[in-house]
Amino acid sequence: MLITIIILVLSAIFFVNGKIRSDLVALCALVALLIFQILTPDEALSGFSNSVVIMMIGLFVVGGAIFQTGLAKMISSRILKLAGNSEIRLFFLVMLVTSAIGAFVSNTGTVALMLPIVVSLAMSAKMNPSRLLMPLAFANSMGGMMTLIGTPPNLVIQNTLTSAGFEPLSFFTFLPVGLVSVAVGTLVLMPLSKWFLSKKGQKDDNSRSGKSLKQLVNEYGLSSNLFRMQVIKDSRLLGKTILDLDIRRKYGLNIMEVRRGDASQHRFLKTITQKLAEPDTMLEAEDILYVTGEFDKVQQFAEDYLLDILDDHAT
C-alpha cells in the first residue's frame, strides 16, 4: 500500500510539473507498479483493450482532422462575422460553439482547437482575452456532458453499467442534463466574467486599447514556434492553395494566417489584408505566412518552396 501511494504521489507531482510528457509519466508509473509486483502483467495491460481507451484515441484523431481540413479557421471566421462588434454576441457564440464541439470531441482537442481562435477573436473585438478563455474552459466541460463520448466519465459510466448487466445508455442520454448545464452556465458566466475578469484590464484600457500582438505572443507562449515567411516571385508556392501544400503531413507545420498587401484601393496608400489560412486560399507573390512548427522544419519548407524567412520568430 505504501509503495502504491508513493508512486501515485510522484506521478501527480510530475503531472503538475509538466516538464516530462504526461504519457511518459503514466507509462513509468505502470512499469513501476509491475516492477514492485503490485499489478500482474494481465492487469497492467488490460486497460489497452478497454473500449473507453480506444474511443478516446479515436477522438484525438477526429481533433487532428479538424485542424488539417481547415474547419478551425472556418469556424473562427463565421463567429467573427456573426458577432460583429458586439461583445455579448461574441461571448454567447463562443460558449455555444465550444459546447457543440465539446459534445463530440475530447476536452483536450476542443481546447486546442478553440484557444487560438478565441485569442484572435478577442484581439479583433479589443476585449481582454481572459473574458473569453475562462468561459471557454467551462463551456468545454459543460458541452462534454451532452453526449456519451463528450467526456471520459460518461464512457466509464456506460462501461460500468453494461458490465453490471444493466441496459446500455444511448448516445444522447445525457443531453437534457447537458443542455441545462450549458444554459445555466452561460447565464451565470456572462455577468461573472464581466465582473471578475475585466477589472485587471480596466486600468490598462486607460492607457491603451488592448495588448499588442507581441505581448499576446509572449503571454501565451507562441513565440517559440511562430515564424513569418514571405512568398517571393520565384517561389514554388505561387498559384497553389493551402490544401495543395499539405504541409501538416509533409513538414508538421500549420499556416495560421496569410497577410497580403493590396495597393489597388488607393493610389498612394497600401492596405494590408489579414485573413485566416483557409484551405482554398490561393497564395500570391509577397504574401506573408504566419507558420507554427519546429524551426528546422520551417527551414526545410522554405528551401523546398523558395521562401524568405523574415525573422527567427514572429513578433
Describe what is shown at a glance.
By secondary structure, the chain is an alpha+beta fold.
Write the layout of secondary structure elements.
Layout (H helix, E strand, L loop, with lengths): L1 H16 L4 H14 L5 H5 L5 H18 L2 H13 L3 H16 L4 H18 L5 H14 L8 H12 L11 H22 L2 H9 L5 H7 L6 E6 L10 H4 L1 H5 L2 E9 L8 E6 L11 E5 L2 H11 L1 E3 L6
Characterise this structure:
By secondary structure, the chain is of the alpha+beta class. Helix content is 58%, strand content 9%. The chain has a five-stranded antiparallel beta sheet with strand order 3-2-4-1-5. The radius of gyration is 23 Å and the shape is globular. It starts with a helix and ends in a 6-residue tail after the last strand.
Quick tags:
alpha+beta; 315 residues
Fraction in helix: 55-70%
Strand order, main sheet: write it out. 3-2-4-1-5
Order of helices and strands: HHHHHHHHHHHHEHHEEEHE
Largest sheet descriptor: 5 strands, antiparallel
Strand content: 5-15%
Poorly predicted runs are 199-209, 263-271
- Compute the average pLDDT: 77
Which oligomeric form is depicted? single chain
Q: Radius of gyration, Cα only, in angstroms?
A: 23 Å
Shape: globular
Secondary structure class reads alpha+beta
Q: What is the number of helices? A: 15
